Amino acid sequence: MEWLSEFGAIAAMQGFNGLSVFCVLLLMALGLAIIFGQMGVINMAHGEFLTVGAYTTYLVSVLTLKYLPELQPYYFFVAIVLSFVIAGALGWLAEWALISKLYHRPLDTLLATWGLSLVMQQAFRSIFGAREVSASMPDWLMGSFNPTDAIDIPRNGLFVMAVTLLLTAAIFFLLYRSRWGLQVRATVQNRVMSRAVGINTKKVDRMTFALGCGVAGVAGAAFTTIGSTGPTSGSLYIVDTFLVVVFGGAASLFGTIASAFSIAQTQSIAEFFISGSMAKVLTLSAVILILMLRPQGLFSIKVRK
Amino acid sequence: MFKISNLASGYGQSQILHDVNLDVAKQEIVAVMGRNGMGKTTLFKTLMGIVPQMGGSVQVDGQEVAGLETHQRVASGVAYVPQGRMIFPSMTVLENIQTGLPASAGGQVPEDLYALFPVLHEMRKRKGGNLSGGQQQQLAIARALATNPKVLLLDEPTEGIQPSIIKDIARTLKEIRSLRDLTIVVSEQVLSFTMEIADRFLVIEKGRFVLEESAANADEATISRYLSV
């Protein structure tokens, strides 16, 4: 029986590890799904907005350590807010300067945002250097939580989960309970008609893009607690994030959540039994197989058109 | 009240509307009749700023709206019920109406709107896409009225709707005209419907008005000659 309880403990820890990956994937995918669903723009630079959030958190941690060391335990909350604001503001700027010019040429936005991602990566390299940096963790995020002797659940993972839960709830609230959300959903369904009932769709687009990027920024802040930040940290996640959005069904946020969860868990649990790259192969094959059976993704909305 | 002068518009190189002139008084209902492809929908889309205007002016209550974007025209008092209704199918009936409400309403649907369309109150939690054609038409009108318009534009409101509901819609339109002091322009192919509601008839052919007749002088046979194929 000894080995059984050990096995259970490992499964639990590996499962929790999967939950951490799930959180970062979900935060990235939510932003991407909102932007893609609303404007049909595939934002290739989405990963870089995550990096913006991660570097913002790093900067805040360095600055607090230098000037206000007594506040070091609490800097993370400021960093999350700032990451959201800075990534969101940059997103607003990108939409205004670049993407809004290309709405009638949707494929070109793919190229333009990819270019933007290269520009941003080089900017990170020039400003922060090519070496990876790490934000200093406050003490209360270090260490782990032990429900039994064998199980070891890291606190930073729990913290990331809490942030993800709060942010997801906030996004749902905004989309389904606010006037902005109503306008977003109307625009998604019929852009021309939305204008004809008085919705300023350009403003809605800009807000949506900024919000999506802001959420990626928060994902970046959360990311610093589980990995170190380099100029290409965000782009490592972009492929997985696209996978999540497509697999979940682009029109459904529930789909995005379910798909982020299943992809992260499959990957994480499989990694324990087989090598990392084989786990990736397994996940990708499963996704491809399911998409062949359900091309519209996991969830889609059925109504008379 | 609603004044269109020398309006010209079209798609790309090809001009569809030529020199369209129309002056509609407050509380007047004008019917624009014509066969398919004669420019009815293009006229409405141009008035809403969906199809680019090539020339001329459109005034609401003395205010020029021709240069404005679609959503700004709505704010200046023009509301639109498009052909095919175009409600938001995966949003609830309530949410559909709310999209038209101005920010100041705080999402509260005015009571008189539900009084006009009691069926929408009953169905407010259902998805718009699951309503029948006639109910969707009522929803599209309610959504347009939620913007608090001075001018209501309806493009073929009877298309694909059962006769008993067509009667209902005719009655409601006459009711809201006096209730809300509304100017209404409606395009149609069904003469019996417009005979019931319109104060004036215009026949459009190849993008020009070719006949104008007040309701008192309108002769069903003359107009229907323009409508038959």
Please, could you describe this protein's structure?
The complex is a heterodimer of chains A (about 300) and B (about 230). With about 300 residues, chain A is mostly helical. Chain A has helices spanning about 1-40, 45-65, 75-95, 105-130, 155-175, 180-190, 190-195, 200-225, 235-250, 255-275, 275-295; strands at about 145, 155. Chain A has one domain. In chain A, strand 1 (about 145) and strand 2 (about 155) form a beta hairpin. In chain A, helix 2 crosses helix 9 (about 235-250). The model of chain A has no long low-confidence stretch (mean pLDDT about 85). Chain B is of the alpha/beta class and about 230 residues long. Chain B has a single domain (about 1-85, about 150-225), classed as Rossmann fold (3-Layer(aba) Sandwich). Helix content of chain B is about 35%, strand content about 30%. Chain B has helices at about 40-45, 70-75, 95-100, 110-115, 120, 135-145, 165-180, 190-195, 220-225, and strands at about 1-10, 15-25, 30-35, 55-60, 65, 80, 150-155, 185-190, 200-205, 210-215. In chain B, strand 4 and strand 5 form a beta hairpin. In chain B, helix 7 runs parallel beside helix 8. Chains A and B meet through helix 6 and helix 7 of A and helix 2, helix 3 and helix 6 of B.
